[in-house]
Design goal:
Number of domains: 1
Order of helices and strands: EEEEEEEEEEEEEEEEEHEEE
Largest sheet: 10 strands, mixed
Structural class: mainly beta
Mean pLDDT: 77
Amino acid sequence: MKKYLYILFFPLLVSCSSTYFLSTLSSNSEDVEQVENGDFLIEKDSLWIAYCFNGESAPIQITVFNKSSQPLYVDWQKSALIVNDVAFTYGGEKLEMGGNVNGYFIDDMPMLYNSVGEFQGDFRGNINLPKYVSFIPPNTMISHKPLRLTGVDLEVIPKKEYKNMLMTDKNDQTVKVKQVNFEEENTPLKFRSYLTVYAENNKPIVFEQSFYLKNIIKSTSLTPKSMSKELAERGDLFYIEKPANTTFANIFLGTSLVVGAVALDVMVNTNNY
C-alpha cells in the first residue's frame, strides 16, 4: 500500500505600514520671526515675505506682500534655494547638481548618557523649473511654490540616535514614536533662500534667510492625517513617507529637486500677518 505525504504551504501574511518621518525646520536668521502657525516671516517697511514648508517633501511656498504704494517685482531667475552650499535657481534654468551631506549627533537629553555619532551621504540630480518675473501691485500679494525638497537618504542617520517618546494624536490617543533632535551646529541639513526683489527704476534688494532641520519624529502610528490639525498644518513641519518594504533611496532631501505646482494668486488689500 502506497502512502502519500502531503505538505501544505501557507503563505506568511505580514501586515506592514508606511513609516513617516515628520520633520521640523527652524531658522537662525536674525530678521526672521516665526509666527504662531509656524510660518517664517520677514517684515520690512515696503513688504513682508513668508516661507511655509508644510506638506510632503517640504514644498517651498514663498508669499510676498507689497506694503508700498508702487509696484514690486520678484525676479525668480535671480533667486535661488541653496542646499548644503549648492544653488538651485527658482527661475527656470536646468542645473546639474551634486554634493554631500555629513554631520554628527550629540545626545544630551536628561537622564540619558551622552553619545556622539557620525553620518554622511551623497546626492546627484537635476532640476527644471519655470521662468518668469512676478509682478506685485501695491497692497497685493503673490504666493508661489517653485519647488519641493526631495532625495536625501535618511538611513545615514543611525537608528540608535532615535529615542523612544510618547505623543498624542488628534483623538488624544497615546502613540509611540522615535525622535532625534539637532542643533544648528550638528544638523544634517542646512539651506538658504536667496530672493531678489526690486521696484521700477530701483536697484534690486536681496533677502537671504537660513533654515536648518531641527528634529525628526519617526513613526508608523503617527501620520499627517492622525496628527492634530494645529500640528499637521504648521508651516515649519513637513513629512516624508517611506512605503513598507521599500528603500529610502531618492526619497528625502538632497538627491534631486522636484518641481512643485505653481500657485500665483493676486489678492487686493490683503495682509494675513
